[in-house]
Design a protein that fits this description.
The chain is α+β, with helices and mostly antiparallel strands. Helix content is 13%, strand content 29%. It has a single domain (9-211), classed as L,D-transpeptidase catalytic domain-like (Beta Barrel), CATH 2.40.440.10. The chain has helices spanning 9-14, 16-20, 128-133, 192-201; strands spanning 41-43, 46-48, 63-66, 76-79, 84-88, 93-98, 100-102, 111-120, 155-161, 164-171, 182-183, 188-189, 207-211. An 11-stranded mixed beta sheet has the order 3-6-5-4-13-8-9-10-12-7-11. Strands 1-2 form a two-stranded antiparallel sheet. A hairpin with a 4-residue loop joins strand 4 (76-79) and strand 5.
């Protein structure tokens, strides 16, 4: 779903339940500020399990919030210290997502880039640094096919600068308990439900600003 000026406060407040239903299932039982639907859903033959909302802090669920930044509607802002990602709307609003950040990769990237590529159930190849620090990744040095056990999760948004891959990604996760914290490796991870939601909202070419 392309984000335009129509992604307005009215859309956030009145249409959000319909927009969030794209993750599958009903939004019944989830209020505006509880983040919509986090139930299980079938994603083209891959079953994505429900989040256990009895153990996950509801403050980590996506929700519309006030926004006072200068970024244009449709752009993404990642605030590393907050462990939050914002999809900017018009009318002084944004859709907020919680994220987990890698202790090394995420902290080494700052500034702006654009989404140059989007992938569903992406292939994952650990970096040499990851393999060095996490030996269990060594068998996957040649890459790991996409799927429910893949560390990149259900979707990946690849950031580019000047047409060149920065190797910085926004992606899903196999470890929902890591959202909202600094983790051992990786870039910016979201709940699988949230990366699917974000993937559906933003096109390639979207500006992403990372603030350290």
């Amino acid at each position: 779903m392309k984000v335009t000026a129509d992604f307005s406060r009215r859309a956030l407040l009145a249409g959000l339940p319909l927009l969030l239903a794209g993750c599958g299932g009903s939004t019944e039982g989830f209020g505006l500020f509880s983040g919509g639907n986090y139930g299980s859903f079938d994603d083209n033959g891959v079953l994505v399990p429900a989040l256990d909302l009895t153990v996950i802090d509801r403050d980590l669920l996506r929700t519309p919030v006030a926004w006072s930044g200068k970024e244009k509607p449709g752009s993404i802002v990642v605030k590393i210290p907050e462990r939050r990602l914002y999809l900017v709307a018009d009318g002084g609003r944004a859709l907020r997502y919680a994220v987990g950040v890698g202790r090394a990769e995420a902290l080494n990237f700052r500034g702006s880039a654009t989404i140059g590529r989007k992938e569903k159930w992406p292939r994952w190849t650990p970096t040499p640094n990851m393999i060095e620090h996490i030996p269990r990744y060594r068998p996957f040095a040649g890459g790991m096919a996409g799927g429910i056990d893949n560390p990149l999760g259900a979707r990946a948004l690849y950031l580019y600068r000047g047409g060149t891959d920065t190797y910085f990604r926004l992606h899903g996760t196999t470890e929902p308990e890591s959202i909202g914290s600094a983790v051992s490796s990786g870039c910016i991870r979201l709940f699988n439900h949230d990366i699917v939601d974000l993937f559906n909202r933003v096109p390639t070419g979207t500006t992403v600003t990372v603030i350290q």
